[in-house]
Write a structure and sequence with these properties.
Elements: E1 3-4, H1 21-30, H2 34-44, H3 53-65, H4 71-80, H5 82-87, H6 99-109, H7 112-132, E2 139-148, E3 163-170, E4 176-192, E5 198-205, H8 210-224, E6 232-235, H9 242-250, E7 254-257, E8 269-270, E9 280-282, E10 288-292, E11 299-302, E12 304-309, E13 314-318, H10 320-324, H11 331-335, E14 343-347, H12 363-369, H13 373-385, H14 396-419, E15 422-424, E16 429-431, H15 434-442
Parallel strand pairs: 1-15, 2-6, 6-7
Antiparallel strand pairs: 2-4, 3-4, 4-5, 8-9, 9-10, 10-11, 12-13, 13-14, 15-16
Helix pairs in contact: 1-14, 2-7, 3-4, 3-14, 6-14, 7-14
Length: 445
């Protein structure tokens, strides 16, 4: 794989529909799966080793990497392609595993002790990227999506059985405009909005709320990037609760979360802590307004946001007439004796959910919140490009094992894209970028 210098560092659109043998070999070498394979060897013990666990694991990786619709399709290609077989240690056509060997392997891989090592493999791929890519994880976004799955009929167990999921989408008036239903699981992601690299993920039952999983997602993402790297987190209304805002406040992360409509009969309230300022109000989203009380009909104006004073823990606002240079009939009442017009400070601790460090009515919030579309693109890539939503996997263990491996493939390809030589110069000379050189230097000998 070779990229031009004009393409982004993580050029997901440049992924090959049919990867070459060189790309496949580079990917397999990039996956740090030694501890996972050691755990699988220990589990197998002294039992039969007709099909080594490295071969079964490699077949599963190839099924996803080569975008085969089923494991059987990958096994068929391995029987035909001798060069591909050798990459995962299969010497002859007779040594290619059977379908039931992979089914049993997925059952084993789906045990919690082995899922732990699959997740560690993913983390070991993301952590070096967090070190060498200086802005990876700076601006993040999260979302959840339903994935189809089939139960195996066994109640109980360490993993939940798939269940029916239901999600409603509403408009600004609170009316339901779309309903999505599925049978399976809920997949929670936290991604970097610029590079579209997954930093953390969780698989839960279909009825688990996004806000319940966010603390785990955030902890995993923070462990995969340098301390203090995450500055913003965008999420939809599902995470608009007090616990989420308190968590992000403690972690010094600015929330970019749309507010839920909970006020049924009132559209504004007096600004808390400003008893003498009878013309200051705020709406449910925390936007601050002032009223012109001199005119016959009171007119509401949005206060001009000046900035977040982190040392004081306040949001600073100024008179919109003075800040934007227009005449207000109430100016003499509000701004008398003030060279810069009336200035107010709102303490965020009064309501962390209502008064985030980046107010919802600002252009900065709107610009950063648009980054949440990165999660939708990543979700589409997982579902369509790598088949995570095909619904062909039966049983919780197999589903968790397969989806976890999809995430390893995603992280491995992210490493491959960042390490790929770039065409540079008028004659197309190939060079390694500074990030690719740093990754190469960190690679085990």
């Amino acid at each position: 794989m070779r990229l031009t210098t004009q393409q982004p560092l993580f050029a997901w659109e440049a992924l090959e529909d049919s990867p070459s043998l060189r790309t496949v070999q580079a990917f397999l070498e990039a996956v740090p799966d030694a501890k996972l394979l050691a755990a699988l060897h220990a589990w197998r013990g002294k039992g039969r080793d007709d099909y080594p666990v490295a071969t079964l694991w490699g077949t599963l990786l190839l099924t996803i990497l080569l975008r085969h619709p089923t494991i059987e399709a990958c096994l068929g290609e391995l029987q035909r392609n001798a060069a591909l077989r050798k990459l995962i240690g299969i010497e002859s056509e007779a040594d290619v595993p059977k379908k039931w060997n992979l089914s049993r392997f997925l059952d084993v891989l789906g045990q919690p002790v082995h899922l732990h090592w699959v997740r560690e493999t993913f983390n070991q791929l993301i952590q070096p990227l967090g070190v060498v890519v200086p802005d990876l994880g700076r601006h993040t976004a999260g979302d959840a999506s339903g994935l189809s799955a089939r139960g195996d009929g066994h109640a109980g167990g360490e993993l939940p059985q798939p269940s029916r999921g239901h999600k409603e989408y509403t408009d600004e008036q609170g009316r339901v405009v779309r309903v999505v239903e599925w049978f399976g699981y809920k997949f929670h992601l936290l991604v970097d909005v610029k590079h579209e690299v997954i930093l953390a993920w969780q698989i839960t039952a279909a009825n688990v709320g996004d806000n319940q999983v966010l603390p785990q997602l955030l902890a995993q993402a923070q462990a995969n990037v340098p301390a203090g790297r995450i500055q913003t987190l965008a999420y939809d209304k599902a995470c608009d609760d007090e616990a989420t805002h308190r968590l992000l406040h403690r972690q010094h992360i600015a929330p970019l979360i749309q507010s839920r409509a909970l006020w049924k009969e009132e559209f504004e309230r007096p600004l808390p802590g400003k008893t003498k300022a009878d013309n200051l109000v705020h709406d449910e989203a925390g936007t601050v307004y002032c009223y012109d009380l001199v005119s016959r009909v009171p007119v509401r104006h949005k206060m001009s946001y000046i900035g977040h004073e982190s040392a004081r823990g306040t949001l600073k606002y100024r008179c919109p007439a003075y800040h934007e240079d227009w005449r207000c009939p109430s100016s003499s009442r509000c701004n008398a004796g003030r060279a810069y017009g009336r200035t107010i400070r709102v303490k965020r601790q009064l309501d962390l959910r209502r008064f985030p460090p980046i107010p919802r009515a600002t252009k900065q919030f709107e610009r950063l919140y648009k980054g949440r579309t990165a999660v939708e693109r990543v979700n589409a890539r997982l579902k369509v490009f790598w088949g995570a939503d095909d619904g062909n996997i039966v049983g919780p263990r197999r589903f968790h094992a397969f989806l976890s491996t999809v995430l390893v493939v995603h992280a491995g390809l992210a490493t491959l894209l960042a390490s790929t030589p770039r065409r540079d110069g008028p004659l197309g000379q190939l060079r390694l970028s500074a990030i690719a050189q740093a990754l190469q230097a960190r690679a085990p000998a």
